[in-house]
Amino acid sequence: MLDWALLGGAAALAGALNSVAGGGSFLTLPALALMGVPLVSANATGTAALLPGYLAGTWALRRELSEPMSPSLVRLGVLSVLGGAAGAALLLSTSNQVFGRIVPWLLLAATQLFVIGPKLVRRRADTAKQRRLWIADLGIVAVAIYGGYFNGGLGILLLAVLGTLGQTDMGRMNGIKNFVSAILTLIAVAIYAASGAIVWTHALWMAVGATLGGYVGGTAARRLKPGMVRGFVVLTGLAMTGAFFLNAR
């Protein structure tokens, strides 16, 4: 019962964090690893558990996606599928031993993204008109590959890349971010599932917790100070990074 409570609690808090600031994988991956799930499978299972939150977030901001945009949603969807599939295939080709050595660095990089993220987003418009579409395409594919391989810090990366496309409205940017995240995660989870990398009993239980946490977090977002939430995410990321570095020694 304690194990299930740990997984459910971690997933609920992860869903709440993702709905407010991101960083949910900082909690789901360690929780699953603590349960004895191999790291590659833990990463795949945690990603599957958070998928409903991405889908719900996309639906919630569907109005922001209703107007024409460049690149189009179809183009973004294709790029997301290509990148997400490549990232998932790369993860599945990585051994648990190698991934265990990579995870602390990925967590550290994701934590640093949360620290510098606001600066990246604020600078988005400075060079937006100087970027060519194909460069933006490469940026979306690169971020989708990262997301298919490891989900931490994905939202910040997407917002930064969307800025190079000339997007300035945060509502629309968040809608596009959720859409791209949902598509690349959907294809990645499909590939994980086909390979048998997902522990479905854990994933389904955590998906319930993440969905509930996402709803609560979304309703509480209006009352929470973004700086405090981001600070909690950064501290959590640093703590988990330190724990994985110690474990990798």
TrEMBL record:
Source domain of life is Bacteria
Q: Which InterPro entries match?
A: TM_pro_TauE-like, TSUP
Give the location in the cell. Cell membrane
Which keywords, in A-to-Z order, does the entry hold?
Answer: Cell membrane, Membrane, Transmembrane, Transmembrane helix, Transport
Does the record bear Membrane in its keywords?
yes
Q: Matching Pfam families, A to Z?
A: TauE (PF01925)
Membrane-crossing residue ranges in chain numbering? 32-61, 73-92, 98-121, 133-162, 182-215, 227-246
Task: Give the main location.
Answer: membrane
User: How does the record say this protein sits in the membrane?
Assistant: Multi-pass membrane protein
Query: Record's family?
Result: Belongs to the 4-toluene sulfonate uptake permease (TSUP) (TC 2.A.102) family.
Q: What is this protein called?
A: Probable membrane transporter protein
Q: Which organism is it from?
A: Cupriavidus basilensis
